[in-house]
Amino acid sequence: MFKHLITSFRTPQLDPSLIEAHYAFLDGLREKRQLEPARPFTDKSGGVDLIQTKNMEEAKAIAFSDSVHTSIKTPGVSKRMCQLSSQHPAVA
Question: Which of 41, 47, 77, 78 is deepest in the core (most CB within 10 A)?
């Protein structure tokens, strides 16, 4: 398994009503044991998620299926990703 750090930054186009769906999305990842820490930035400009997947393609598919990214024509969140670990099994 790989670990991927996802940083999300709010854009002016973010619809605040999408935040609850975003939290539900994160809860779903937690239930699947794919999400480790998920923390908002203290200034509310975005947040950081750490997910575990088989590869970068799966990580991208997860990251870009988040409601705050997909539910509006102009994304409300800009996402950046990096792969942190390639150890198997995923390091805790």
Answer: 77
Model's pTM, two decimal places?
0.73
Report CA torsion sign: 55, 24, 6, 60.
positive
Q: Could you read off the pLDDT of 46-72 as tens digits, one per residue?
A: 888 888 888 888 888 888 888 877 654
Asked if 64 and 8 touch (Cβ cutoff 8 Å), the reply is: no
CA 37 to chain centre: 10
Residue with tokens 């239930």: 31
Report pLDDT for 56: 84
User: How far is it, in rounded angstroms, from Cα 7 to Cα 80?
Assistant: 5
Rounded to whole angstroms, the Cα distance separating 47 from 44 reads 8
First to last CA, the chain: 11
